[in-house]
Amino acid sequence: MKNLLHIFLLAVLATAVVSCGKDNYDQPESSFAGKVVYDGQPLGVRGSNGDVYLQFWQSGYELNTSFNVYVAQDGSYSAMLFDGVYKLVMNSNRGPWVNSPDTVTVEVNGATVKDYPVTPYYTISNATYSLSGTMLTASFDVAEVTAGRNIEYVALMVNKNKFVDFGDGTHVAWVRNESAVPGHISLQLDVTGALNEQVELYARVGLKITGIDQGLYDHKVERVK
Amino acid sequence: MKKTSLIFLIASCFMIMGCSDFLDRESEAILTDDQIFSDQNMISSVLANYYGRIDWGQSVERSTEYRLLDEATQSSGGTDRTLDYGDDLWRVYDYGLIRNLNQFLLGIHSEAAAGLSEEYRSQIEGEARFIRAWVYFNMVRCMGGMPIVYDEIFDYQGGMDITALQIPRSTEAGLYDYIIDECTRIALLLPEERTTNASRANKWAALMLKARAALYAGSIAKYNHLTPDVKIAGGEVGIPADKAAGYYQTAYDACQEIFTGDRYALYQNNPDRGANFYEAVCNKSSEEVIWARDYKYPGNTHGFTNNVIATSVCGDIDANFVTPTLNMVEAFEYVNDRDGTLRTRTPDDADYIYYDRPEDLFAGKDPRLYGTIVYPGSDFNGIPMSYQAGQKYLDGGEWKERTGDINSKDDDGDILTADNGPDRSDAQYVNNSGFNIRKFVDYNRDASTRGRGSDMWFVRMRFAETLMIAAEAALELGKQQTEICGYINQIRTRAGIGLLNAVTLLDIEQERKVEFAFENHRWWDLKRWRRAHVVWNGSADTYSATHYALFPYVVKDPSHAQNGKWVFDKLRSTWTAEYPHRFQQQNYYNFINQDWMNRNPKIIKNPYQ
Question: What's the pLDDT tens digit per position in B488-505?
Fold first, then answer.
């Protein structure tokens, strides 16, 4: 009888040991990173709400399902992947640039860096922010790259955290200019209330293109308090 | 040895039993095609099953989905923190049902159905094809052109070449054309008589579907230039502009055919205009309703009355799941003034306007407001409805509020906060916006209980829509304003408000918003006009993108000249809907599910996907 018990316990133990090998996979260990760029310069986008993302596809399996890699405010993206060949696709018309159905193929093998090139309608450059008293001034250059789309508005926004964009709840104050044309633009925003109420304050400028949901932004966020 | 014999004996017993026909029995639960198609009662049950599977979008069965647009807001429970519209919101992809309908169509022409009369067969064929066209219509307005399978019934056997079963997407125009052509033929099959409670389709329902589909196609053709990126090069999404006039003409002609048929008219049996409008939509004897989803107690009921009824008249603990917004109330015009804004403040915004009774604020409003919404001072089936958020008093020149819990009184025995609220709490079943829905709500108190439910119908098509389609098609075809106003003024006369002598598309949008509130039109209308991203632009500064509430107060301040009068605060109700509605360009068409594309690689993606 005692023997039987021993055999039983041994069997249980054996099962426990064996099952350890079956269901454990290694986690993906190859880092992949890059930026959405035009002319070598990153493009700033809305980083909150998961609005802008790249789809990653991998061929060779029975069923296709993509996964999304979200683009951060400074235009960068990163993911931990298994080694292999991936296809990067931008959802059509999802970003503030000319829609391009092109696929970027990436071979991930260890740490890999690959940028995603796009052609924007407009670019924002040389943005500077200065606070004198309670008046926040931003100046920046807007250049038209691709014709055919008007500027709906340009805006200077401030928020209490580093996410600063057009979305509801991601700016505590903003000023908009709805008649802006490409060239040097300067915007002024009185931030008295925001300075009093918030512990920290971050500023960013953005540009909304008519007919495109996503705005184009300065790729960096400036802390003003 | 003995043991082994015993085992063999038992085993052989089983084998012997298995040989009898004990297990070979006809199923009593599964009916064969022959049994169904030779019996009219069976055929009716099958059809009834189809009729019950075809409501998508807003409906009395899913009351909480009314919070997603601008008609109502989420009162009971916590704040609605929805940010964006889902890529699969109200998406319809029901090829299972289309296959069932095709099997049914095959069955009623099979030998088993040889005994049916020609007339009866033509009617049920018409009904099945009508339901099929309706399913396609619901798909096309969600996703654009989708595969058309016609009468095919595919059967898969192992080893078959499945590429023959994979049908690519039709163009958007192609699918609308198919629906319109089908409706033309269906109208010849179906009888002209009204059906019981408008629950089954007749000739006029087929013509209404034809008119509505043609109107949708026409407005997409005309207005899709406003959203130039919302299209696919192959035409699966987007209709060429030169097709607009043809579609509008089709819609116009279908309406004329319904007018000539002269079977329906606007309901005008009750001299009280407000009550008349409620009855027009909610009374099952209404001669205006062409096609509805009917319900019947016992057995076939829904919980809409239970969910949305006001606290003071509810029959169970549930109430106020969704309640109308102030935006919806203000959309109703005044009888003599097209601006429906409620006058709560003096023109210079210096002071409140003081009202003797709460209903005085709504004096002179479009009577349809009464028929659609329960507002402060109105009644519910004769019971006066009181809404009071609190009391106001002046303190050093500033208005202050005294509020209490729901249904509370102050020390003098005066009401602080009424049982209907409104307040801003997260509590369940509490009114947060100051109104309740009346349309589709049953006056029968038992209907508001969980156990019983309501058998109020849900109207899918009614004659007022025929008039509105005729008006819009005539407008787009450039007909005389006298003709266009003629259609729309019939509706305004019945409603009891001022007539129009010139109509624009914005007037049509306005009229449809109030006439068809809660009838599952608004979302589809704003989409086909390509107006949704403008109306729901995601900005907290935009009135139409945000939800507002109306909080009534009684002035209780003996030192004040207006003591005892009513004042009203209009408030953006961030406690019911925190974020403004943001309709993005990608929301004009639902995304295609990846799983469908894996099964049928010929299906291509929609824009922004």
Answer: 999 999 999 999 999 999
